[in-house]
Amino acid sequence: xxxxxxxxxxxxxxxxxxxxxxxxxxxxxxxxxxxxxxxxxxxxxxxxxxxxxxxxxxxxxxxxxxxxxxxxxxxxxxxxxxxxxxxxxxxxxxxxxxxxxxxxxxxxxxxxxxxxxxxxxxxxxxxxxxxxxxxxxxxxxxxxxxxxxxxxxxxxxxxxxxxxxxxxxxxxx
Length: 173
Known about the structure:
With 173 residues, the protein is mainly alpha-helical. The chain contains ten helices and no strands.
């Protein structure tokens, strides 16, 4: 509800209202997916660099432009901002653009993300996009990331599953 109120405030041009609602929402105990979304919104609100405007529109002004366009503008504005590549990768993956999604998610991981929840999600999505685009090097990158010390047991098991898939695919039939 607070996120919806934040978007309503954004539609009225009330930036202070957006920030207040997202700050309230961020203080609530939520699951990991909701936490990642709120952290993304907080990141977008705090951004002061060239990608600030397209990131704000991406999260708080849906319908002004499509998500892919806004994410691309954020990448163009700040090509070294891993978070911009992250949202572009998510958008491309939603469209089934596997090569482009793998490229953007790989860049996001390379350039850095604002927290482990984003790293985890980027690596999970990179594995899928890279596998579907037959980019084994990037699947292996996702496996290495998911096997890292900051990852959960389920992430490490997912990495093992991806490794087993690659091993199976490599066997002659």
